[in-house]
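Question (not urgent): is this output format expected?
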Amino acid sequence: MRASLGQVPGLRIFQVGEEADSTAYIAAKCRAAHRVGMNCEVIRFPLGTHSSVLLEAINKENSNPDVHGIIVQLPLPDEYCVATTALTVLPEKDVDGFHPLNMAALASADYTYRLCRSRTSLYPCTPLGIMELARRYDLSWSGKKVALLGRSDIVGRPLAYLLLKEMVTLTVCCIESDLRAELKHADVIISACGVPNLITADLVKPGAVVFDVGFNVIKDPSRREGFRIAGDVDFEGVKKVASAITPVPGGVGPMTVAMVLQNTLDAFRRAVSVTEERPK
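Got this back:
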């Protein structure tokens, strides 16, 4: 791209504070971006920085023609307004897909995921990653009973919009739901609750497909780091029942990072008016 267009996709990531999980996730995104030849820079602010300083910095990158994607790493300190921050990022550079205009486009669109790859809006990356993973493994959604655990603006709600376009019978659950009743007949289970080992083998229909979006840090003195990462699903137990299951870590997480890069590439191509036919 640099040879033919004179530039490459540019990504800016803003972080307030030094929360360990966020720092690690940002590092993963930067490594992936550099690996594919993108320009990725992190702009960090210490805790106590006034929100106006962050918003001013975002606006500066909104006007930067070399920047095509902007991410504000969550969570932000309590004194920051997440909604205001999301509104400040230009929707065409909002590669997280959190701007209200991008969310509205997702909710109102009438096409399936296979067709939304030619979309003009940017959608949240974890839901896109799940849909892309299913596509790559030839999972047919049509007619399936899908149980989705979690209703967050980052994963649950946008993923529900995508799934409803795939002609599924969708049940959206929370940790207060009767999980035994809701999950036992589900062909596909997607859990994004943030509760370790919430889904056990006795809740899963034999042959079901399970997507574990949970990312839970659990204290573990037996490990050098003093902790281990676990999903929402009892992986060892459920893998004996399910026909397919994503691990944690190493499952949905890398797909989320991949979709950050895909959104950045899409934003770049629109900015420089370049089209590309993607593999089917």
